[in-house]
Amino acid sequence: AFWCSTCIKEITILEEKMKEYNDNIDVIYLSFDNNKSDWLKKQNELGINQQQSYLLINNFKSAMANYFDITAIPRLILVDADGNIVNEHLPSPNNDAFKNNIDALLKKSKL
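Request: output the structure for the sequence above.
Response:
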C-alpha cells in the first residue's frame, strides 16, 4: 500500500535482493490501496515495473486476500517456478530466514 512505511522499506530491500540473486527470483507486489492514482504514483516513485504490481480493488476482502488469509501487510508468500506455494508466511527480507528460504528453494530447483 502506498501509505505503508514498512511495505515501502521491504520493497526497497526486495528490489536489492532480486539484484543480489541475479534476477533468479521474481517479486510480485499486491497493493491494498483504495486510490488507483495514488497507487500508480507510488509505484512509479519506487521504480516498480507495472508488470509485477497489481491493485486488489476489494482490499482485504478480495479473493486473493481471502485465499491466503491476508489480514495485515506486508505479507510475503514464497512460490516456486511451478506455482507451488513453498511458504505462506515468508519472513521479512532483512531476516536471515528469508535468505535461507530463498537459498533452499534455488538449490532445490537446480537439482
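The chain has a mean pLDDT of 88.
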